[in-house]
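Help needed: design a sequence for this.
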């Protein structure tokens, strides 16, 4: 399937920022990068950003719409942060809402509902619901986008929500919620990683419960992995059980980076 992404407004768009000057694009760009990276691990997914990836230029709606039309996606997503209030850290506006151009667009409504419900569950912000609004990018992209949604992840003018959405944790939660909705709706299948086993990455400082969780995660991605010792009888949750991934040279560097981002700073990469 084909998906286009529009990460909100640019770094140079006047007024599209939190009261302290933190730009909308700085929020949405990080979420979009995570969404794209995760969806790239699924079979048959092609994706395209329709913004300036540096954030310096704000393309007019007609230009973005033409980029959507030329790609002819199955799904177009506008990623935004909401705003409201007379100035300062306005506390009244808060919550998540997802828009479709028309409630008559059944596919857009179906995927929009999944995204909205997932985000509310993941971020635990107020549920403002699925709404109808003919936004310009949506209006001009109707010819070739089979489904179109616009997500307002939170209010960047609400200090509680804004500060949370600047963290990697909340950006990852948001991205995961969107990806899981798309995967469920379109029945996507994870790519099987095909590798020659020449290298391994070991996390020496894991408890049995951590190693077991990592084994499940990386087996689903197609890697050969296991906890040590391989004989796991009578293991207690906090017993030491290092986690090992066997892979090739190229994938080992990716796995090492992922594990270090998860907080496993002692992970090591070596040849088999």
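Sure. Designed sequence:
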């Amino acid at each position: 399937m084909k998906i286009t992404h529009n990460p909100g407004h640019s770094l140079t768009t006047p007024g599209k920022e939190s009261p302290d000057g933190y730009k909308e694009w700085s929020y949405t760009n990080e979420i979009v990068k995570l969404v794209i990276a995760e969806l790239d691990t699924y079979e048959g997914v092609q994706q395209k950003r329709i913004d300036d990836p540096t954030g310096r230029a704000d393309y007019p709606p007609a230009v973005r719409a033409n980029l959507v039309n030329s790609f002819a996606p199955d799904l177009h997503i506008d990623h935004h942060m909401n705003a409201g209030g007379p100035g300062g850290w306005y506390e009244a506006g808060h919550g998540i809402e997802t828009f479709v151009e028309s409630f008559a667009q059944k596919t857009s409504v179906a995927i929009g509902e999944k995204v909205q419900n997932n985000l509310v569950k993941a971020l635990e912000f107020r549920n403002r619901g699925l709404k109808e609004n003919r936004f310009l990018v949506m209006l001009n992209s109707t010819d070739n986008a089979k489904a179109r949604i616009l997500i307002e992840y939170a209010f960047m003018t609400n200090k509680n929500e804004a500060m949370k959405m600047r963290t990697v944790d909340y950006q990852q939660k948001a991205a995961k919620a969107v990806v899981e909705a798309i995967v469920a709706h379109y029945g996507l299948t994870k790519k099987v990683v095909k590798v020659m086993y020449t290298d391994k990455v070991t996390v020496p400082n894991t408890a049995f419960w951590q190693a077991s969780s990592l084994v499940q995660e990386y087996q689903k991605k197609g890697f050969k992995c296991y906890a040590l010792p391989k004989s796991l009888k009578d293991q207690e949750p906090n017993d030491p059980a290092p986690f090992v991934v066997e892979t090739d040279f190229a994938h080992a560097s990716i796995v090492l980076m992922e594990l270090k981002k998860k907080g496993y700073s002692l992970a090591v990469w070596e040849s088999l």
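The longest helix spans residues 168-186.
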